[in-house]
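Crash report, auto-generated. Payload:
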Amino acid sequence: MGDDIEVMALRGVNVDIHQGEYVAIMGPSGSGKSTMLNLLGCLDRPTAGAYWLGGEDVAQMGDDALSDVRGRRIGFIFQSYNLIAQLTVLENIQVPLFYQGQSMQESYERCAELGRLVGLGDRLTHRPNQLSGGQQQRVAIARSLVNDPLMILADEPTGNLDSKTGLEVLDLIDDLNDSGKTIVLVTHDNYVAERAHRVIQMKDGLVDRVEVKRASGEARKKVNKRR
Amino acid sequence: MAGYQHFMSTVQLGIKTLLLHKLRSGLTMMGIIFGVCSVIAMLAIGEGASFEAQERIKALGSNNIIVRSVKPPEQARESNNSNGRSRGIQYGLSYDDTARIYSTIPGVQRVLPMRIIRENVRFYEMELPCQVIGTLSFYPDIVSIDLVSGRFISPMDEVYKQNICVLTTSLAQRLFPYHDPLKQIIKIAGNYYKVVGLVREINTPGDRPQSGETEGETMENNVYIPLATAKTRFGETIIKRTGNTVNSETVQVHEIRVQMQDQPYVESADPQIRTLLARFHKEEDYEITVPLQLLRQAEATKRMFNIVLGSIAAISLLVGGIGIMNIMLANVTERTREIGVRRALGAKKNDITIQFLVETVVLSVGGGLVGVIVGVITPYIVTAVTDMNTIVTPWSVMLAFGISGAVGVVFGLYPANAAASLDPIEALRHE
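Recovered output after restart:
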């Protein structure tokens, strides 16, 4: 039944995201931000229109090619971390490289290095259920970096965390942006959005307005200090 | 190389995932373990049961036809019986029959007449019941026996009616606990015989027709003497006194072994011999055994047996397979989120299919391995407990193991495809 009704979650959205930019997407529920994120993450294809990611039109790709693009070009950070329970911290970080054909031995060094980068060098052999939420999210961040992606998509990365660990995670994301990573972050929280260069406000499947918080390269306001 | 390592990582991951739920994986494997175990054990029992029968038949020689004298039914003898005090019956095969078979049946290579008499054999104080078999020098060529030491009866012994004999080893061991049996003199029914050789008879048929009576078991206690010697020393009539009555039995030849040149002749000779004997015998005082036919029957029975046992075992493997499929389907539902995450992180549909398929195959092959071990041990326990002969054949082990692997693939494909065809977005949203 439900299959027959077409819901236009997005109705003509035109957005450019530049390399090195930090973009936050905000909007009430039902505004189309999840669909937007799915499209940006190549999990879904637009029914019409084009999506150019790093010089490739992703909209026309088949399922396997999309998987490949996700594996090579995009890093995901989820609200509920989405680590694989039976794998260790290190193995979780290795997963994207595994699907690009690298064996566990080949990717060991790089992944261990990333684990140390997010401050979990001494926990590489732990399992997700032995870690705190903040630690798990940091593993997820390391995992999103492992394939050296064009863009990191963060879907409410602090939604499941208390404010203190949330800030730590946001600081980590800021550091990534400072080192040149493109970040697209979906959030409800204005304070989180304050850190971005641009905030895209969505409403009813359209871009409602775009707020420029600061120019690219300009130091971010220390909004978090107020919380 | 990289591909191989990649695959091994997938297998390792599968094992790791299965170990996460040890009890569940173990119980799932049970089905396959029992299935494989029962395939091997049942086929081993079936094989063992038919093996003994087949060996016994083979020992009779597949090129041979055995004709035996049989005492005719009781009523038929009453007519011969003039008074109650003495009864004489005459029945069975004759030397004429032997000659006729040799001269008229096509494809006959050799015909061996035998006289078989139950008597006691004595060596000083030692007295044992035995079968005295009067036979010819080519007996070892027709009946499978091993010459252990000395020699068998020679054609010259036959010509000169020598008082020599050949003993089976089991008899010799009991008769001469402290002597070397060769060249000893033993006494049978008043006559003395010199031991010239020892043989081991493989699978003596236990139901031979015999003349004379002794107490106790004579199986394997055979004394072979030249046929001509048996003819002159024992005569053809065995007289037996019980109280007032005297019974006499006259049998010329107890058993005739007909050796055919080739197997096709065996088939044709069977009815020919029947027709030939029927013409010269008023009543059917003989029986014909064709080992080849028995062998065929035994093989047919064995095939039936294997099919029945095999299908029972195959059903248990099938049930095991369904058990695996059931668990894997539940597994896919339970791990929907994980599947979504993997897809988001770059896993193709194929990667997911392979991951789940590998898990199923690891379960079934692991179960198969344990099943093979248990299945190979079980027949030994069966043999120890029930005295049944069992034979574990390599092909049954390979068959069972192969089926267990196939079960993994067949019953794993559906859950694996179900996992792969999940929509990544839906899967990621799954709680």
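Post-recovery validation: DSSP finds 14 helices and 13 strands in chain B.
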